Amino acid sequence: MTPGLQAYLAVASVLFAIGFAGVLLRRNVLVIYMCLELMLSAATLALVAFSRFNGTMDGALFVFFIITVAAAEVAVGLAIIVALYRRRHSVQVDQLNFLKN
Amino acid sequence: MATFFFYFFSLLTIVSALFVVFNRDTVNSAMCMIVAFAGVAALFVLLNAYFLAALQVVVYAGAVMVLFLFIIMLLDTGERHRPLVHGFNLLLGLVSATLLVCGALWLAGQFPVTVTPPPAPMMPPANNPLAYATSAKAFGIGLFSRYMLPFEVTGFLLLIAMVGIIVLSKRLPPPPASPPSR
To answer: In chain A, which among 57-76 make CB contacts under 8 A with chain B?
Structure first.
């Protein structure tokens, strides 16, 4: 028996939850950012699975857009992180509290 | 055989994703991330999305992770003495992630059990050009017919991102001294 839609959705949900836990747990901005990418990747997996099992191209085309936007987002986000590091000399989110006081 | 590959690659993806989260060294995290992306690409292959699998490897595991590694090594933050996660946060994070998985699995269980469709054709049939097909040409048909506007907007978004990066990484002169307040 080949894996069905549910199996792929289960893998995607576990992957998404791992990324979510990483965003919540880690303090390093770069690791948080990688976990965000993990969540996006889980969403693309679910979309491709839906697309395949429904026999339409729409989900796969949406994944194409997600990959493009994610690449642009990573570039901008890393530029922001570098600018932040230049100013604060830290990438730990618990030390980036200059809006607080 | 497909079943074996499915379990192998999904296990590989999930284990390396766990290593991304629970790893002290950021470079090791990035390396595990590459493995996770390759695992997702393999799952794409099992779903007959060969073009997306190639795109995933080239864009994600290639370009994006090279950018990540470059920034990680550029910043080189020595955070190895810091605790990885804090106790109460660990509890909260694991509980919320478990709840998320339970909810998503319940939602996945709501779908009727689907029979695996036959292997996707290379080209979509002429009467239904947006049917699932494997060739890159099938993507082109979709992108240049129904998804023409989003395609153009995405191109413009890339331009905006490029301009934004240049503005962000340019070293601007310090702002002029603020005028004395009355």
So the answer is: 57-58, 60-61, 63-65, 67-76
Chunked mean pLDDT (size 10), chain B, 182 residues: 91 94 89 95 93 93 92 77 73 88 86 75 81 87 92 94 90 69 58
Distance CA B35, CA B139 (A): 26
DSSP label of B96: H
Residue showing tokens 């023409």: B148
**B114 DSSP 8-state letter:** P
Are B84 and B21 contacting, i.e. CB atoms less than 8 angstroms apart?
A: no
Q: How far is A87 from chain B (nearest CA, A)?
A: 11
Instruction: Enter the pTM of the model.
Output: 0.89
Does any domain span residue A100? no
Is A66 part of any domain?
yes
Residue type, B117: P
Q: Where are the alpha helices (DSSP H) in B47-174?
A: 50-55, 65-75, 87-110, 136-143, 148-169
Q: How many domains does chain A have?
A: 1
**Rounded distance, CA A48 to CA A37, Å?**
16
A29 contact B CB<8A? no
Q: Which of A68, A70, A24, A62 is nearest to A45 (CA)?
A: A62
Give the phi and the psi of residue B181 in degrees, each rounded to 5: -75, 145
CA closest to A17 among chain B residues = B97
Domains of chain B: 1-77 (1.20.120.1200), 119-171 (no CATH)
Domain containing residue A63: 5-95
Tokens of B91: 């509890």
Q: What is the DSSP string of A12-52?
A: HHHHHHHHHHHHHH--BHHHHHHHHHHHHHHHHHHHHHHHH
Interface confidence (ipTM) of the complex: 0.92
